[in-house]
Phytanoyl-CoA dioxygenase domain-containing protein 1 (Bison bison bison), 291 residues
Amino acid sequence: MACLSPSQLQKFQEDGFLVLEGFLSADECEAMQRRIDEIVAEMDVPLHCRTEFSTQEEEQLRAQGSTDYFLSSGDKIRFFFEKGVFDKQGNFLVPPEKSINKIGHALHALDPVFRCVTHSHKVQALARSLGLQMPVVVQSMYIFKQPHFGGEVAPHQDASFLYTEPLGRVLGLWIALEDAMLENGCLWFIPGSHTGGVSRRMVRTPAGSVPGTSFLGSEPIRDNSLFVPTPVLRGALVLIHGEVVHKSEQNLSDRSRQAYTFHLMEAAGTIWSPDNWLQPTPELPFLPLYT
C-alpha cells in the first residue's frame, strides 16, 4: 500500500513536496489516457471559443462567456484551450486533440475511470498516512502540456486559488501519465517555500462583472536559482503542499506531458473561503475521499 515512511513524511514536511515513483502502473496510466481520448473525441467546443468577435461589446460578451464557463466548471467536465488554436470564426487551426490545455474540474466525480483512481485504496492509504481525518476532493484536472506549444505555468501556490482558514489544509496529488522531463515541462519547486503564508489570492468578483475574478496581493519576484527541477517517470505521484511555490516551463519538445491532478482538503475544522472561484454546489458537494 502507499503508506509513507517516517523519513518520507519528514521530507514532505521540510520541502513541501514529495515524489513517489511508481505509484501507478503503466496499465493504470494507459486506462486514463484511453478514457481521456474518448472524452476528447466526444467534446463539445464551448460557444465562447466559437464566437467571432469584432466590436468591443462582442469582445466583452465573449470574455463574459469565457468567465462564466470557467466559474461554473467546478461540477462539470469542461475543456480549456491553448492560446491561438482557433481562427476568427472559431474553427480549429490545429487538430482538436492537440489544442486542449486542460480538462476540469470534476472528472473525479463524473467519470467512472477517474473516480476509481481518485478514490483508490492506494490514494486513501496515502491520505491516512498523512494523518488526514476527513479529506474531501475539491477539484480535478487532466493536463495535456501539448508538444511545441504547451504553455508555461508561472510560479504560484495552489492556495492562492484554493484558500482555506487555517492554511495548510489543501494538498495536491499530481500523477504523471507520461514521463515528465526537463525538455517537456516537468514541475519545478522551491523547497521549503510552504511556510511563509500566501502572497496572492484569486477571488471572485461580484456576480456579473467581467472579469469574474481578481487578485489580492501579488506574486513576489522570486530568484530563479531557488527552483529545483523535479523530473519524474510515468506513473509517479507528486505530493504538493497547498503553499509550496512551484511552476513548469513551456513544452517546446515533440512529446506531450500528460498528467492527472486533483486536490484534497482536510475538512475537519477547516473553512473553505467563500471568495474562492471554486465553490461546492448542491449538484456536487465536495466528496469525501474515504469510501
